[in-house]
Amino acid sequence: MLSAAAAGLLGPLLYRVDPDVTSLLDRLRPPLFFGGTIEHPLGTDQLGRDIASRLLRGARISLLVSLSATTISAILGVALGLISGYRRGRIDDVIMRVGDAQLSMPFLVLAISVVAVLGPGLTNLILILGVAGWIQFARIVRAETLTVSHREFVEASRAVGARDGRILFRHVLPNVTASIVVMATFQFAQMIVVESSLSFLGLGVRPPTASWGTMISDGRNYIQVAWWLTTVPGAVIMFVVLGANLFGDWLRDRLDPHLRNLD
Amino acid sequence: MGKFLARRLLQVPLIVVLVLTIIFFTLRLSGDPAALYVGQDARAEDLANVRRMLGLDAPLPVQYARFLVNALRGNFGQSLRYNEPALPILLERWPVSIQLAVASLVLSLLIGLPVGIVSALRRGSLLDRVSMTAAMLGQGAPVFWIGVVLIVIFSVRLRWLPASGSGTWQHLVLPSLTLGAFFASRVARFTRTAILEALPQDFVRTARAKGLSEARVLWAHIAKNAAIPVITVTGLTIPALIGGAVITESVFSWPGVGNAIIAAVYNRDYPIVQSGVFVISLLVLATNIAVDVLYAALDPRIRFD
User: Fold this and answer.
1) Which of A7, A49, A68, B275 has a CA positioned 20 to 30 A from the CA of residue A166?
2) To which H or E segment does residue B132 belong?
């Protein structure tokens, strides 16, 4: 995952092939070792654009969308989860039931229906994914806040007259950070998949911007003659998601042994 | 159990209303739903007409109440494309979708369970490592990509199976493999973990000490205890499975509900999209409750209160 991030940021500097340069003479060249040349190590697409450099450019978009969306979800979810777990009572009920309702709409289906109204595009995509992902964070934060707010140190600080805001930020939040970070890595992995799925359906990032999903979608039309157009970007997604999930597992084991059996 | 189920069922209407509320406000996110219906270059009087026709000239609370009442009667308005009520159009397509969902569910259990069990019993073996790596990859691979790769291999290269359409069992193979891959990976991983956790426990040792055969220990004691986490995962994965089904149907032009929803999004046919989202939510709700019931039936230790 880190190497994908590094590749997205530094790649275009090191690998100086313009991802938007079209060259009809060089169209649909296969990757190196499959009859291709070193000039285009992962082959070229239907317009002769270099796949490797489009992947690197796509990495920026995919990671940008997933990171921003995860951040938005985390902020929303943590805030609502803290309120829910700390205040309890009616507001807790309202927040959690809305969450239940939202969870009964599959993430992707919900995202599709919102895109249908707002229209595709980078900003909309980030906003939709960000807002739709709050509930996972809210649930985990709420559960932990419920237990933490009964611990002695919280009672103690309340006894000496600390205000709610102080208790929440100085005492409760630090104790739930580990779970939030772990959740965020898994969420990030999910966002990459959802972003690419939406872009694949033509509901996410708009062409000609290269996103991993749009690359696979474009390649579908040339499936008979050029398998690498679809296969290569998908493999990249798969390994990045795998990396993020492994990183999440590792973090979970490191930060909180109690969580180990969750999945 | 009865009490728990009753309370769970009592929550359903509330959640259904909340789902409808989310659907209602989704359409209004754009500001003016009438503009969505008629498109960008409509004349002002057309816009006004549509607004009146759809009841959008009423105050928002009135619109909301009307929407709820109509929706609960199964009326999501006319499909703009087919000029027929939207909900029946979708319901017609259910059997085809269910066919695909059930096929991939069965397929992934048939693959996932044995792989998980064998991996747990032969922990650390080559087989274990290979299948768990495959399962990790299977969980990370986007559904649509698996579909495309399968098409490349089996339809384009080998020409064994059709790449789109429905009707025969050959048509069913690739879509259900595509949709099942993710799920099978999950089932395999969780089965393995669940069995590994059950293996060192006291009741297993007791059963062995009683002189039961290894097969009986495995099936009567280990499998029964391992079933609970596996069922949980199955339940939790259902929404993802349905989301994946939408994509799979689109990749393989499978004429089900998911395909209809995607087509409706392209056609800006909002009544279809709305009723689709609603029907899918009901399905998820129903499976969640079924999972809870199954839970309690399998594990008498679980008391819901």
Assistant:
1) A68
2) helix B126-140
Q: Under CATH, to which class is B92-298 assigned?
A: mainly alpha
Cα–Cα distance for residue pair A84/B181, rounded to 1 Å: 37
- The residues that bridge with A50 in the sheet, in sequence order, are A44
Per-residue pLDDT tens digits for B283-298: 888 888 887 777 777 7
Residue ranges per structural domain of chain B:
2-72, 92-298
Give the number of other Cβ atoms within 10 Å of residue B106's Cβ. Answer: 12
Q: Inform me whether the C-beta atom of residue A199 falls under 8 Å from chain B C-beta atoms.
A: no
- The architecture that CATH gives domain A44-260 is Orthogonal Bundle (1.10)
Which residue of chain B is at minimal alpha-carbon distance from A242? B140
Residue A213 to residues A46, A231, A249, B87: CA-CA distances in angstroms?
16, 11, 26, 31
Determine whether the interchain pair B139/A118 forms a contact, defined as Cβ–Cβ distance below 8 Å: no
Q: Which residues contact A65 (CB under 8 A, 6 or more apart)?
A: A122, A125, A126, A129, A191, A195, A204, A205, A211
Q: Which amino acid is at B104?
A: S
CA B41 to chain centre: 38
Q: How far apart are CA B190 and CA B196, in angstroms?
A: 10
pTM of the model: 0.79
**Helices A2-14 and A228-255: angle between axes, nearest 10 degrees:** 130
Q: Hey, of A109, A110, A118, which one would you mutate to test binding to chain B, going by the most B CBs within 10 A of its CB?
A: A109
Question: pLDDT tens-digit profile of A125-149?
Answer: 888 888 888 888 888 888 888 888 7
Q: Which residues contact A101 (CB under 8 A, 6 or more apart)?
A: B15, B18, B19, B21, B22, B281
Contact call for A238 and B141, based on CB within 8 A: yes
